[in-house]
Amino acid sequence: MNSEIFAILGNALSGTTLDIVPIILVLGFFQLVAIRKAIPHLKQKLVGLGLVVLGLGIFIVGLEQCVFPIGTQMAQQLTDLTFLADNDSVKLEALQNAKHIAPGVYLWTYVFAFLIGFSTTLAEPALIAVAYKAKEITTGAISAWGLRISVALGVAAGVTLGVYRIVMGSPLHYYIVAGYVFLIIQTCFAPKQIIPLAYDSGGVTTSTVTVPLIAALGIGLASSVPGRSPLIDGFGLIAFASLFPMITVMAYAMITEKLAKRKEIE
Amino acid sequence: MLTVSIQLAGPVKTIKFLFSKIFSAFMDVVPIIAVITFFQLAIIQKPFLQLNQTLFGVLLVVMGLFIFILGLESALFPIGEKMANEFAIKGNPWWIIFFGFALGFSTTIAEPALTVIASKAGGLAAGAGAIENNKDSVANFVLGLRFTVAFSVGLAIAIGVVRILKGWPLIWFIVVGYSLITITTFFAPQEIIGIAYDSGGITTSTITVPLVTALGVGLATSIRGRNPMLDGFGLIALASLNPIIFVLGYGILVYGAGGL
After folding, report:
1. Alpha-carbon gap, residue A87 to B190, rounded angstroms
2. Residue B205 pLDDT more than 80?
3. How many helices (H) and strands (E) in chain A?
4. Choosing among B5, B35, B164, B260, which should be mutated to test the A contact, i.e. which has the most A CBs within 10 A?
5. With b meaning 16 or more CB within 10 Å and e meaning fewer, what string describes A120-148?
6. CB within 8 Å: A31 and B83
7. Chain B: residue nearest A148 by CA?
8. Where are the beta strands (DSSP E) in chain B?
9. Which positions 82-111 of B are in contact with A (Cβ < 8 Å)?
10. Which class for B84: exposed (0-12), middle (13-18), buried (19 or more C-beta within 10 A)?
11. How far apart are CA A216 and CA A210, in angstroms?
């Protein structure tokens, strides 16, 4: 088991190194050609980049040891028709032959999608970084946890709706375009300061932790629901997970602004 | 910044500081542990198969997150801000626009998540008969898709840098971008839509996001009359929007216009 862990660690480290090599090349090139100055605290920065690679590598190994196997196994079990039918063969046959899927059948899958979307987003390193920066700039007016929780709620709602769409089999772009329209209207009423951050949080949320788990959930679900194709219906969950955080982050800013105003009046 | 604070503080303070960092990393992971434990025990109703391995994994996740955040504060953030600052002092806008493009392109072309999605899309296209079902044409398709996405991310960051320099509101770009996506979707083949929409979310990796954020915020801070909140954020937003348009376009090129 030990050698296995080292193999995984080696893999993860080479993956994160591959991520950082182009960055170092670009930074080095522009430092030499455009800025033409020695880099201050070079040693400290190189150590810091080393820590980024090492930390991310260890983080990914940990995820592969505990979160991913259990998460994917759960996604499979929860969407398995035998589990849904409580091991009852009559129910199982009815499920397999049903032309219309009652949306309630997958209740536990929705709950799982919501909770796993919420909890994994809270541990997403890129989001932690952006929340930290936002807090620093606004000198605490936007709290790091407030931002992270509203993003996580957005991912949770998005993934749940995305799972519902896979069960129902309706076309992805109807939901997404409707989401865009809602988002643009909401933007007109949101505090100006939050708008760029809100739109950024859509792309930030879906990386190291969330993508593999959500993809496993989508593909598992699309292969088990009768009449769905994993290739066409399995994609799209990530799109939901990046759309909804924009809505919830703006909502968060609108609510905190309202509360602050109310306090002023009092 | 970080090492400086460690050097200034005594050993007790250093230990306290590190512990508070480890504790906050642990708090980040607690919700995942809670959800997984709940489902394993209450819904699936089976004991954890390899409890040791799971606990060891949790420990690694916490330590990894802790080390990553140390590196983030001592390298990624300061580097991004310093570069932005230097460019702003230099005053030649073309260098920084080119820098934005190079950063976006190079980090995306090597992105593992993109490689995975692109290969899946390649298999899909071959299966649907849109391209010839042999190794060469699938590899060509996959490479073309990766270049398309990487180019679109580079372009998005370059445009985003111009936006910060000029101080244009982000929402113009968003509205135009969403309109383009909506229009292109109506001409795009069914098979590419899901992949295209997903590609927007996966292009920005954990290392790229802090660096690009620091770049934007650093630029907005260095240029007079720019507000870091209003102008500094928004680079990631464009980098997640643009690939959708380009991948839809790539789909139309390869499959031919689909229509709905």
Report:
1. 36
2. no
3. 13, 0
4. B35
5. bbbbbbbbbbbbbbbbebbeeebebebbb
6. yes
7. B28
8. none
9. 82-83, 86-87, 90, 92, 95, 99, 102-103, 106-107, 109-111
10. buried
11. 10
Q: What b/e readout covers B197-211, taking b as 16+ CB neighbours within 10 angstroms?
A: bbbbbbbbbbbbbbb
Residue A101: strand, helix, or coil: coil
Residue A263 confidence (pLDDT) above 60: yes
From chain B residues 190-219, the ones with a CB under 8 A of any chain A CB are: 190-191, 193-195, 197-198, 200-211, 213-214, 217
Separation in Å, CA of A94 to nearest CA in chain B = 22
What are the residue ranges spanned by the domains of chain B? 1-78, 91-260
- 3-state class (DSSP) for residue B204: coil
- Considering only CB atoms, B174 lies closest to which of A199, A206, A239, namely A199
Give tens-digit pLDDT for B51-77.
787 888 889 989 999 999 999 888 888
Q: Residue A37 is which amino acid?
A: K
Parse chain A into domains and list their residue ranges: 1-65, 80-265
Cβ distance A159 to A113 under 8 Å?
yes
Q: How much is the ipTM here? A: 0.85
- Evaluate whether A26 touches B99 at the Cβ level (below 8 Å): yes
Residue A222 sits at the vertex; the CA angle it makes with A219 and A224, to the nearest 5 degrees, is: 110
Q: Which of B213, B241, B243 is nearest to B114 (CA)?
A: B243
Q: What is the pTM of this model?
A: 0.86
The predicted-structure confidence for A90-138, as pLDDT tens digits, reads as follows: 767 766 666 666 667 788 889 989 998 999 899 889 999 999 999 988 8
- How far is the C-alpha of B212 from the C-alpha of A264, rounded, in Å? 36
* Nearest by CB: A67 against B32, B76, B217: B32
User: CB of B109 within 8 A of CB of A22?
Assistant: yes
For A42-73, write each residue's pLDDT tens digit. Answer: 888 889 999 999 998 898 888 888 777 777 77
Exposed, middle or buried: residue A188 (CB in 10 Å: 0-12, 13-18, 19+)? exposed
Structure tokens at A86: 């409580």
Give the closest residue to B155 by CA, choosing from B82, B221, B245, B84.
B245
Determine the distance from the C-alpha atom of residue B37 to the mean position of all C-alpha atoms in its chain, rounded to a whole number. Answer: 30
What the block records as the tokens of A60 is 């990914």
First CA to last CA across chain A, in angstroms?
Answer: 63
Q: Which of A197, A33, A167, A70 is nearest to B34 (CA)?
A: A70
